[in-house]
Amino acid sequence: MGLGCLPERPALARPTAYRPAYHRPGPLGTLFICIDALDECPPGHRIKLLYLLNQILQKSPGARIFMTGRPHILGEVEKHLGGSAATRSITPTKNDIITFLRAKLKEDTMPGAMDESLEQEIIQNIPEAVSEM
């Protein structure tokens, strides 16, 4: 696999394959790039991706990048994107976590494997553990 979910280039490709093709947005508007879960990208690929995103921002100042990721990669993002990055920390509330857990529990493919007391224990303990982090 190449950069995250991008397929690798053919075997004949050289490191120059990482040079992005630049296309300035036309009269239709601004270029928007959305990347979810950047922290899940392997570190070596993440560095290359951040380098390419920095190149895009330098060549296309109107480009906007929206990324999500866990806090531990913030330093990497700031290092590679520098002043081009504005960050916002978003922390889920206890209610957000409970809502998420209930939705996931409804998707359970083996509903008979869990009784009500286990479900209640999950709903009670996980949000408390997360809030202590």
Notes on the structure:
With 133 residues, the chain is mainly α. The chain folds into two domains: 15-84, no CATH class; 94-131. Helices cover 41% and strands 6% of the residues. The chain has helices at residues 43-59, 74-81, 94-106, 116-131; strands at 32-35, 64-67. A two-stranded parallel ribbon has the order 1-2. The longest helix has 17 residues, at 43-59. It is elongated.
Let me know the average pLDDT. 80
How much is the radius of gyration in Å?
20 Å
Q: In which order are the strands of the major sheet placed?
A: 1-2
Span of the ends, CA to CA: 33 Å
Query: Largest beta sheet, briefly?
Result: 2 strands, parallel
The assigned structural class equals mainly alpha
Extended strand count: 2
Task: Please write the string of helix (H) and strand (E) elements.
Answer: EHEHHH
The helix content, as a percent range, equals 40-55%
Q: Quote the beta fraction.
A: 5-15%
Number of domains: 2
**Poorly predicted residue ranges:** 9-18
Question: What's the helix and strand layout?
Answer:
Elements: E1 32-35, H1 43-59, E2 64-67, H2 74-81, H3 94-106, H4 116-131
Parallel strand pairs: 1-2
Helix pairs in contact: 1-2, 3-4
Summarize the structure.
With 133 residues, the chain is mainly α. The chain has four helices and two strands; from the N terminus they run βαβααα. It has helices spanning 43-59, 74-81, 94-106, 116-131; strands spanning 32-35, 64-67.
